[in-house]
Amino acid sequence: MSVITREEVAHLARLARLDLGEEELDHLASQLDVILAAVARVKEVAAEDIPPTSHPLPLTNVMRPDEVRPGLRPEEVLAEAPAAEDGRFRVPRILGEEA
């Protein structure tokens, strides 16, 4: 038994403002029928006593905790820069901006 008819697919296509040809309607009707039948099978298996889950296995956070570590001092960083001025990186001017 078909779950969705060709006419229903045509109606949905009109609502979605899709211009589907005759072949496309037949093709989509059969594909949607298979999808809806699969959903119906899952619905039959789902039991009331089984809680919904997002994942079948319990997940734990695999990230390590944040820890503060010393970083580079500004002088060390600027010493490696091609150009520095007033404690900042010096870069070429772009887009004709004025200082």
Automatic annotation (TrEMBL):
<dbReference type="GO" id="GO:0050567">
    <property type="term" value="F:glutaminyl-tRNA synthase (glutamine-hydrolyzing) activity"/>
</dbReference>
<dbReference type="GO" id="GO:0006412">
    <property type="term" value="P:translation"/>
</dbReference>
<dbReference type="GO" id="GO:0006450">
    <property type="term" value="P:regulation of translational fidelity"/>
</dbReference>
<comment type="subunit">
    <text>Heterotrimer of A, B and C subunits.</text>
</comment>
<dbReference type="InterPro" id="IPR036113">
    <property type="entry name" value="Asp/Glu-ADT_sf_sub_c"/>
</dbReference>
<comment type="similarity">
    <text>Belongs to the GatC family.</text>
</comment>
<comment type="function">
    <text>Allows the formation of correctly charged Asn-tRNA(Asn) or Gln-tRNA(Gln) through the transamidation of misacylated Asp-tRNA(Asn) or Glu-tRNA(Gln) in organisms which lack either or both of asparaginyl-tRNA or glutaminyl-tRNA synthetases. The reaction takes place in the presence of glutamine and ATP through an activated phospho-Asp-tRNA(Asn) or phospho-Glu-tRNA(Gln).</text>
</comment>
<dbReference type="GO" id="GO:0005524">
    <property type="term" value="F:ATP binding"/>
</dbReference>
<dbReference type="GO" id="GO:0016740">
    <property type="term" value="F:transferase activity"/>
</dbReference>
<dbReference type="Pfam" id="PF02686">
    <property type="entry name" value="GatC"/>
</dbReference>
<keyword id="KW-0808">Transferase</keyword>
<dbReference type="GO" id="GO:0070681">
    <property type="term" value="P:glutaminyl-tRNAGln biosynthesis via transamidation"/>
</dbReference>
<keyword id="KW-0547">Nucleotide-binding</keyword>
<dbReference type="InterPro" id="IPR003837">
    <property type="entry name" value="GatC"/>
</dbReference>
<keyword id="KW-0067">ATP-binding</keyword>
<keyword id="KW-0436">Ligase</keyword>
<keyword id="KW-0648">Protein biosynthesis</keyword>
<protein>
    <recommendedName>
        <fullName>Aspartyl/glutamyl-tRNA(Asn/Gln) amidotransferase subunit C</fullName>
        <ecNumber>6.3.5.-</ecNumber>
    </recommendedName>
</protein>
